User: Fold Sugar ABC transporter substrate-binding protein from Kribbella pittospori.
Amino acid sequence: MTVGVALLLSAVSGCAGWGGGAGGGGTDSINVLMVNNPQMVDLQQLTADNFTKDTGIKVNFTVLPENDVRDKISQEFSSQAGQYDVASLSNFEIPIYAKSKWIAPLSDYITGDPSFDQDDVLKPMTLSLSGEDGKVYGEPFYGESSFLMYRKDVLADKGVTMPAKPTWQEVADIAAKVDNAQPGMRGICLRGQPGWGQIFAPLTTVVNTFGGTWFTQDWQAQVNSPEFTEATKFYVDLVRAHGELGAPQAGFTECLNNLIQGNVAMWYDATSAAGSLEAPNSPVKGKIGYVPAPVVKTDSSGWLYAWSWSIQEASKKKDNAWKFISWASGKDYETLVGEKLGWSRVPAGKRASTYDNPSYLKEAAAFATPTKEAIETADPRNPGTQPRPAIGIQFVDIPEFPDLGTQVSQDVSSAIAGRMSVDEALKRGQELADDVAERYRSRAAK
Assistant:
């Protein structure tokens, strides 16, 4: 998940006029609580002259950094205070909030608004934003999967050919061959920064394709299983041998900068990074190749993430809230952004029609098809080699996972730093996961 951009902007959010209270609001206004990433800021700037002008509905925005907005949304929606009508949630929160009845089902609105064209939304997105009852509870604003990015020129100079669908062992072999291909250049960048959404975003996809899982379908913890251990050792060994300098502190932003600045030859991470790599001022524009997430035992292994819109169940303005969501996640909004701000700023990764749009494809030709294919092949309900107890690819969609994943990630990051062994890190992780699993087994037994 691309948390780095939100952190980048957080320092200025208080003085740039983006924040503030939810505002008042008559019947023709709604209150929206959202994360302060660039795409959302674009939305805020376009709302008054377009959505409000066309509908008469005023939108009062509260815009906060990622960690702050998650905390505020959790407090607001769990209490059902009703102060905010719409909030930006990810596909991690939405199934949990739907089960708790904190957000309203959108299925009736979708049926009554055929121009929204739910069928155009990429199916893995719809699936990941649905509840156990099969109803849709969120609409994506933009989405991403993961793929492998590599310097075509560097590999060519070394006489190395990147397979169209690489395995992790092939990637490790290539990393060794291109290590130090240029002065100061390492073979690959892989996140090592602690955090369930940092190191464990890519690492859990590696675990999946090696045949591992956090939990079995009947809630048996598997953190120190042979498959989980093999995957983690592979990842740690690869980044220690051929990875970026400062790997234990490297997250999305650091790896992005490393690839742009020529410090690494490859990077496995979010598809959303490609827009920065191919930006007009990028020194690596046109030099990057894109192939699917590397695999071992599965056909695909890319993750799935989406910042999305949901309506608070306690909202008394659900009709107007849906009109906002229909506009913000609709086809016409993408065209508006493309024409007003530039096609590189379109919140993509959610609609099939985006990838048929000549204007967008002209801007995103290098990565559009690999991005779409990565999202379309992501299976949030069946990401590995065995059934799972909860939806999720790079996470386990339970409320306890952020704390569990973050605690285990700290030890795995320490293993990358050489302060402990992978076996020791995962033994401690197994104890933590056992505690979580026991709660779920106990509930199932009642």
